[in-house]
Specification:
This protein has helices at 48-66, 108-115, 124-127, 136-146, 150-155, 164-172, 185-188, 203-209, 246-253, 312-320, 330-335, 375-403, 422-432, 444-456, 463-469, 482-499; strands spanning 4-10, 14-20, 26-33, 45-46, 73-80, 86-89, 99-100, 159-162, 182-184, 194-195, 200-201, 218-220, 223-228, 239-245, 262-266, 270-277, 288-294, 300-308, 345-347, 365-367, 412-415, 436-439, 472-476. The chain has 509 residues and is of the alpha+beta class. It has a seven-stranded mixed beta sheet with strand order 17-18-16-15-21-22-23. The protein starts with a strand and ends in a 10-residue tail after the last helix.
Length: 509
């Protein structure tokens, strides 16, 4: 009997294949980065064919390093960067253009046009989302409006759309030779095209965005067998049985299944998810309402989410654009070279500000500079910006929960690449005023997709078995006086204000 689950984690900067055992332990990993294509200010693209090639390669790497074959793998799970939009020809499998990444802001003019009738909350009651360039529908609309012939081809039924989970699933299960064109409820809930209550595409939303229904994948649950891997793959015949958008997958991997449980993932961006159970809670404080997961024919579980656009990518920016550090791991040492931020605050609004502000007119700002400021202060301000933005989102979560009579967050479970940075984790606990809990296995995104797939094929018996797998690595407790926390937060919010109203009618970028 197969003893392992393979999870494909198709992320913003790389694709990984991770093999897990029954205890949720990592057996082997394959990983490969893909290009970040930025042809203009505010544009971020990926080559979907490069991503698919990388996915195939990392599957082989993971299997090879563990000396395993398809006979050892019980099921495959997929997790993915969510709102990134791929549009391709159903007959040839060729994308009509580069994928438009979730960080990309080029479709803001479409947002503004649609918001003229009803404002940015025009569809929020139905979708849980404000009108924003962040979500997939505006990206599909932009491609149909700007790629020559795309509109006509789409209306003839020649084009398919998918976020990268759908792109990987379609190719993995045969592509042009019968590939499964499907997504799960978590990814569908990030498109601005799905009704949160019915879990189905809505015709009035499709009409508003000009998206033909024939382009869209079938919406399925997060844990079921969608199809099997095609014969030419190293995983031939293996069921693909779990799909979760990356943030929902990380929450699932943290065993945060119930209302009131929460996690924050520190990746390219930062994403805090607070589970609300089977109840749809509509935020009045700038958060998103999203689907947390759905297991087979069971009810959908919902969540509040605060999305922050730039966190880990800020450290990449310090490395790649400024040359301030040679590797991402150096930022903690540089930040520790100074005792505090020296009055420097860094607001990384490179793509505007996401939750809870939703200000596309904001741009990045470093404020409070003096002759005393040095590289260490800028590095420290960059790390602190991650924690400050998370505090802003948590304040919004607690406000929404208070309005519904719920209990404020008591602890924050954390995961993602940045949780290894202990300076950041301690500062995060200081700014939140609640414990920050790091798991023993930091790869909770891939683990969540593995859990969903394993549940679907009976590899794991149920949620209680998954809860038993959870193990803490370290708990960071607040260690700062409330008055000092309030002072730092006051200065941070002043800096946020300085970043707004930057883009106006004749601005570029």
């Amino acid at each position: 009997m197969p003893e392992y689950i393979l999870s494909i984690d198709q992320g913003t900067t790389s694709s990984r294949a991770i093999i897990f055992d029954r205890a949720g332990g990592i057996v082997s990993v394959g990983q490969k980065e893909h290009r970040q294509i930025m042809p203009r200010a505010g544009w971020v693209e990926h080559d979907a064919l490069e991503i698919w090639r990388n996915v195939q390669e990392v599957i082989g790497t993971a299997l090879g390093r563990a000396d395993l074959t398809e006979r050892d793998i019980a099921a495959v799970g997929i997790t993915n960067q969510r709102e990134t939009a791929v549009v391709w020809d159903r007959a040839t499998g060729e994308p009509i253009a580069h994928a438009i990444v979730w960080q990309d802001t080029r479709s803001q003019e479409i947002v503004d046009r649609l918001a003229e009738d009803g404002g940015i909350d025009r569809f929020k009651r139905v979708t849980g989302l404000p009108l924003a360039s962040y979500f997939s529908a505006t990206k599909i609309a932009w491609l149909l409006e700007h790629v020559p012939g795309a509109r006509e081809r789409a209306e003839r039924g020649e084009l398919l759309f998918g976020t990268t989970d759908t792109w990987v699933l379609w190719n993995l299960t045969g592509g042009v030779d019968g590939g499964v064109h499907a997504t799960d409820v978590t990814n569908a809930s990030r498109t601005l095209l799905m009704d949160l209550e019915t879990l189905a595409w809505r015709e009035d939303l499709l009409e508003a965005f000009g998206v033909p229904r024939s382009m869209l994948p079938e919406i399925r649950s997060s844990s079921e067998v969608y199809g099997t891997v095609e014969a030419s793959s190293l995983l031939r015949g293996t069921p693909v049985a779990g799909i979760l958008g990356d943030q929902q997958a990380a929450t699932f991997g943290q065993a945060a299944f119930d209302a009131g449980e929460s996690k924050n993932t520190y990746g390219t961006g930062c994403f805090l998810i607070f589970q609300t159970g089977t109840e749809i809670v509509h935020s009045t404080n700038g958060l998103l309402t999203t689907v947390g997961y759905r297991l087979g024919d069971g009810p959908a579980h919902y969540a509040l989410e605060g999305s922050i656009a730039v966190t880990g990518s800020l450290i990449q920016w310090l490395r790649d654009q400024l040359g301030l550090i040679r590797s991402a791991s150096e930022v903690e040492q540089l930040a520790r070279s100074v005792s505090d931020n020296g009055g420097v605050y860094f607001v990384p609004a490179f793509s505007g500000l996401f939750a809870p502000y939703w200000r596309p007119d904001a741009r990045g700002a470093i404020v409070g500079l003096t002759r005393y400021s040095d590289r260490g202060h800028i590095a420290r301000a960059a790390l602190e910006a991650v924690a400050y933005q998370t505090r802003d989102v948590l304040d919004a979560v607690n406000a929404d929960v208070a309005e519904t009579g719920g209990v404020p967050l008591a602890e924050l479970r954390v995961d993602g690449g940045m949780v290894a940075n202990e300076t950041l984790m301690q500062f995060q606990a200081d700014m939140l005023g609640v414990p920050v809990v790091r798991p023993r296995i930091a790869e909770t995104t891939a683990l969540g997709a593995a859990y969903a797939a394993g549940l679907a094929v009976g590899f794991w018996s149920g949620l209680d078995e998954l809860r038993a797998n959870r193990d803490e690595d370290r708990r960071f407790s607040p260690g700062i006086e409330a008055a000092e926390r309030d002072r730092l937060l006051r200065q941070w919010r002043k800096a946020v204000g300085k970043s707004m109203d930057w883009v106006d009618g004749d601005a570029r970028g």
